[in-house]
Amino acid sequence: ELVAVIRAIFQQKQDMQGLKVLVTAGGTRERIDPVRYLTNDSSGKMGYALAEAAAQRGAHVTLVSGNTSLNPPPNVKVISVESALQMYDKVMELLPEQDAVIKAAAVADYRPAVSADKKIKKTKDHMTIELVRNPDILAEIGTRKTSKQVIVGFAAETNDVETNAMDKLRRKNADLIVANDVSKEGAGFGVDTNIVSFIRPDQPPRRLPQMRKRDVAEAILDEIVTIRTSKSGMDRS
Amino acid sequence: ELVAVIRAIFQQKQDMQGLKVLVTAGGTRERIDPVRYLTNDSSGKMGYALAEAAAQRGAHVTLVSGNTSLNPPPNVKVISVESALQMYDKVMELLPEQDAVIKAAAVADYRPAVSADKKIKKTKDHMTIELVRNPDILAEIGTRKTSKQVIVGFAAETNDVETNAMDKLRRKNADLIVANDVSKEGAGFGVDTNIVSFIRPDQPPRRLPQMRKRDVAEAILDEIVTIRTSKSGMDRS
User: Fold this and answer.
1) Is residue B121 part of a domain?
2) How many domains does chain A have?
3) Residue A134 lies in domain
4) Cα dihedral: A43, B189, A76, A206 (round 10)
5) Nearest C-alpha of chain B: how many angstroms from A232?
6) What is the pLDDT of residues B27-52, one digit of tens each?
7) Which residues on A lie below 8 Å from B108 (Cβ)?
8) Does residue B35 sit within a domain?
9) How far is CA A23 from CA A45, A73, A87, A160, B118, in A?
10) Whole-number pLDDT of residue A1
11) For chain A, which residues score pLDDT lower than 70?
12) Which of B65, B80, B81 has the alpha carbon at shortest distance from B30?
C-alpha cells in the first residue's frame, strides 16, 4: 500500500493522464443451482495489476470484476459482477465513453441452460448439464468499437499459442492480443509472474521474457499508448 | 494468531486430549479441462474453525482440505487435495486410526465423465457435459465405522432442512448431522456466522441460535464429546 503510494508520487510516467480505461478481471460464476457453479482458474491478478498501473499513470480506471479474493486497487472504480451475462451488460453500458478497454477477465464461454432455484438433489448415477454459449464480450466490443478506441484481449492457451492468438485477434477485431501458454510454469493462472507474447495486426509476435504480472501490466500499457499514438497519426495523415 | 495462542493457554477445556480427529473442509474442484471446473460456494471456514478448536481442546487433528483461501490453523496437520476422488482416497486411508471424523467439506456430488487434457475450444452454440457420481465419502465412512468412532456430517439445504437432514442421518449411518438452511441470511457459505440444528438418532432436533462459526464449532465438539461418552457407557453396560 505504502509502496504503491510512494511509487505513485515518484512515478515519472503520467502518459495516460485523463484517458478513460475499462478493465475486466477475474473469473465468472455460472450457476447450476444456489450452491453449485461452473468457473475457471482466474485469480484476477493480471487485471487488477493492469487497473492499478493504469490509475497510477493518470487514467480514469473502471474495473468490472468477476470473482476474486483480491483487494480493490487504489483510485480505481470497482464494479462487481458474478456471471458472464452481468459482465456483458455492464461492459456494453460503459463502452461508449472509454478510450481503451482491456478484457483481462476469464469469462465463461458457456452457462447452464437452466439455473435451478433450489439445490438439485443427487438422485441419479449420471447427470447431464446442458450448456448454452455466453455472449462473446470481446467480439461484441470489436464490432462496436470506434476507430480511436484501443481494444486489448488475452489468449490463454495450452497449445499452438501464437497461431490461436493471431486467429483470435482477427476474429475479435482487437488491436492487441496478449497471448500466454498457461501450461508453462511461471505463466497463467494463480501465479505472480507471466510469460506473454504481444500479437498485433500486421506485425510479428513480440515475445516478452518471464516477468512479474505488475511489469507485464506496464508493458501492456506502453503498448496501448503506442497504438493510440499510431491511431492519432493515421487520423492526421 | 496471538488471540488464538492466549485462548489456547487459558482454555480450561482439554476434553479432547489425545483424541484423533479428522476434519474435511473446503470445496472440491472437478475439472472439465485444464482451466475449467465445476465447484461450489464452500469457503472452508466451518471446517477450519472445527480443526482449530479441536486442536486447542487437545485433539490430534488432521485437516483434509479442498480449495480455500484460508491459512492453515496452528497445530493441525493439513493435507491439500483438489478433487472429490483425491479427498475420498485420503479420507479412507486415514479413517481406521480416527476417534472422530467431521465431514465439513462440500464435496462435489458429480464430476465430468471425461476431463480433457487440453483446453476445449468453444466451437458450438450448445454443449453438453456428461457427469458421473462421485463416491459418497460420508456414506462410505458410515459403512466402515467402528462402534466407537463418532461420525459427523453437514446438511446444507435450501428447503425442508430438518426433514432432509434426518433422512441424511439415516442413509449415512452418521452420529450427528449439523443441518443449516443456506438460503437464510447469516447462515451457510462465505459468511462468518451460521444458524444450525443438531440432528441425532432418536432425538428431537436441537436448534441453535445464530452464532459465530467458531462458537458453532465449539458446540459441535461438545456434542461429539457427549456422544463419545454415551458410546463408552453402552460398552460398559
Assistant:
1) no
2) 1
3) 15-115+127-236
4) 10
5) 35
6) 999 999 888 899 987 889 999 999 99
7) 36
8) yes
9) 12, 12, 11, 26, 27
10) 67
11) 1-12, 188-190, 234-237
12) B81
Nearest CB partner across the interface for B35, out of A118, A131, A182: A182
**Chain B residues within an 8 Å CB radius of A36:** 38-40, 108
- List the single best residue of B127, B138, B159 to mutate versus A (max A Cβ within 10 A): B127
- Smallest Cα distance from B180 to chain A, Å: 13
- Chain segment B112-162, per-residue pLDDT in tens: 998 888 777 777 888 899 999 999 999 999 999 999 999 999 998 888 899
Identify which of A73, A44, A69 has the alpha carbon closest to the alpha carbon of residue B68: A69
Q: What grid cell was written down for B234?
A: 453402552
Which chain B residue has the Cα nearest residue A118?
B158
Question: The domain that contains A218 carries what CATH number?
Answer: 3.40.50.10300
Active site residue A159: no
Distance (Å, whole) CA B26 – CA B40: 9
DSSP tally for chain A: helices H, then strands E: 6, 14
- Which tens digits make up the pLDDT trace of B51-75? 999 999 999 999 999 988 899 999 9
d(CA A107, CA A57): 27
B8: in domain: no
- CA dist B93 and B36 (Å) reads 29
Residues of A in contact with B35 (CB under 8 A): 40-41, 106, 156, 158, 182, 189
Q: Chain B: residue nearest A131 by CA?
A: B127
* Cβ neighbours for A157, distance < 8 A, ≥ 6 positions apart: A164, A165, A179, A180, A181, A182, B119
